# Entry
Amino acid sequence: MPKRIAAFGEVMMRLQVPGYELLSQSNTLQYSFSGTGVNVSAALTRFGHTGYLVSTLPDHSVGDAAIAYLRKLGITASFIRRDGKYVGMYFLENGFGARASRVTYTNRLESSFNTAAEDAYDFASIAREIDVVHFCGITLAMNDTVRSQMKAFAQAVKSAGGTVVFDCNYRPSLWGEGAYEKARPYYEDMLGLADIVMMNEKDALLTLGMSTDKQSRREQLIDLIPAVAVKYNIRAIAGTHRSINGDNTHALQGFLYKDGRFTFAEPLSFAVHDRIGAGDAYTSGIIHGETAGWTPEETVAFAAAAGMLAHTIVGDTPLSSESDIRKAMAATVSDVER
# Structure
């Protein structure tokens, strides 16, 4: 059965330099709207769910443009407040070869979402109207008010019998000096409320301060993730391992830990057109499979294929349907579909 799934997070304006030019070279920018919550909610609407975004946008023409863009993605905007003055922005320069892509944020801390009052949202009422809520660690890094809102919203959803999804998505640069120590108690709060968590061994080592004598990433993962699941009573933990091949293609392997065992997807290798937002596509695949009651094998394979396809689409937001993803899983996509 389709679910009512909400994401809590900021709507950002993406300003992209065309092609592979540097920002200093170009005099043209292409704009769109995105954010982790936008990406996850939009992807899940493609799978037949009702996707909501819980956020705040300014009540002027830029906010209007953002709302129109979200509606075009199929996102239900009924939980979006209109207040404040600004939309956070980031500039994207596409990488090529040895030069990595570069993202530069501006005006983010002053955005309408990040300056909303602590009591701006009626979380108890929203929680009664949804089945699942998604949170992101990038949002958790913004400020104390947003952190308090996240915890209150998660508690409200749990009290209403809903499912809480938390994507660790740790970014030390967003936390500033003493990042690990500063972030840890807030991560522990969210993990204690979460039913489904997106993380890997790096999150356990860095964010939670865990230790292991294992050397390889896979061995560390197998050693640490079960301990996290037990400590915080988490139903399912999922994530990916990525590597870059010698020909500059990427390899991605998804995993899911559930019911005391790991399930690994077959590694996928592919060329990259636009990497940003691919992790959100993987997360959406995990949420879809978990809410549908699929086996771990089917869920992780579907999520990995969703993540792979997201690398082939321009823009942050995953746009593949369930049919598109199943074709990729079956390796039946031809050069031209007629």
Remarks:
- Residues 332-338 have pLDDT under 50 and may be disordered.
- The radius of gyration is 19 Å.
- DSSP finds twelve helices and 14 strands in the chain.
